[in-house]
Amino acid sequence: MKDNYFDYKTNNFLLVHNYTESPINVDTHIHNCYELYYYISGDLTYHIEGQSYKLNKNDLIITNTRELHRIVFDSKEGYEREFIQFKPEFISSFQTEEYNMLSFVQKRKLGYFNKINADDVLSNGIDRLWQQISKYANEKSPECNVMIKAIFVQMLIEINKIFSKNKNALMASFEYDEKIIAILNYINKNLEKKITLDLLQAQFHISKYYLCHLFKVNTGFTVIEYIIYKRIMRAEELLLSGMPIIDISEQVGFGDYTNFYKAFKKVLGVSPKKYINCST
After folding, report:
1. Residue 173 pLDDT > 70, yes or no?
2. Could you say which DSSP state residue 92 is in?
3. Domain spans of the chain, in order of start
4. Residue 54 burial (CB count, 10 A)
5. Based on the number of CB atoms within 10 Å of its own CB, is 141 exposed (0-12), middle (13-18) or buried (19 or more)?
6. Is the sign of the CA dihedral 85, 87, 90, 95 positive or negative?
7. Which of 23, 46, 212, 254 has the fewest CB atoms within 10 Å, counting from its CB?
8. CATH 2.60.120.10 applies to domain 2-173
9. Using CA atoms, how far apart are residues 240 and 122, in angstroms rounded to an integer?
């Protein structure tokens, strides 16, 4: 059962607040926009690019357009959250050469520093700013669009302050499996090559069966799932650069165009040709 408390949508901006009584796992996915995810309640682990985050109330998760993520529920406890999805165009008129409000989301290494702890969320007033945005989204008054954008800009500034102030502390407390990080880096640098479990086993001197187990525990993804998604993300970039579709399957490691076509449509929901048409 899903109860949408409300949602609000305008150009390049979406706000949703909902509750799910009996949640099911959220499959691996990416967004074509940035996302701020505000956790309220539930029992889950949030997996992003090789990192696993166990969340507490008022934690904030940030993902960009290149970060694979999924949610795994550890019990059937009711699940409540709010999220904002937005594109840079939404706040472009406020950007200056001296100050980039999106540096925290654009410049992070993939899978690093995705979580802002509840203490920082509350002490910097992000919860209060979020509530104000929700208030205007519910009112739908003549001035609501202007007020939402103005308050949202304040929120982005506060998030930047947190990352600037706590960068060293976050780095010191960051936990990850060195072997998995090495494997992730290898995959991302060799997407055009044939990557098999046997190859990874030989490259990293680890049983492929244990590798699969370790990879899934640490990332929330299977090895093959991760490789396919990353190849499709690379294919998106090549499509937008103007490379002929027929050449891209080789460039991203699929080799056979039929396999590339099927994987692309399964992940993104459209064919490569339709994706180009929708993006131009």
Report:
1. no
2. G
3. 2-173, 178-279
4. 11
5. exposed
6. positive
7. 212
8. yes
9. 40
Cα distances (Å, whole numbers) of residue 169 to 37, 102, 166, 173, 222 = 22, 21, 5, 6, 31
Read off the tokens for 175.
Answer: 């936990």
**Which two three-digit tokens encode residue 145?**
């669009």
How many C-beta atoms surround the C-beta of residue 165 within 10 A?
12
Kindly state which CATH superfamily the domain 178-279 is placed in. Answer: Homeodomain-like (1.10.10.60)
pLDDT digits (tens, 9 = 90+) for 56-96: 999 999 998 888 899 999 999 999 999 999 999 999 999 99
42, two tokens: 């539930």
Name residue, tokens 């459209």: 270
Start-end of H helices in the chain: 103-106, 118-123, 126-139, 144-173, 178-189, 197-204, 208-219, 223-241, 245-251, 257-268, 272-279
Asked if residues 229 and 66 have their Cβ atoms less than 8 Å apart, the reply is: no
Give the tens place of pLDDT for each residue, 210-259.
999 988 877 778 899 889 988 998 898 888 888 888 889 888 998 888 98
**DSSP 8-class letter at 26:** E
* Contact present, 34 and 96 (Cβ < 8 Å): no
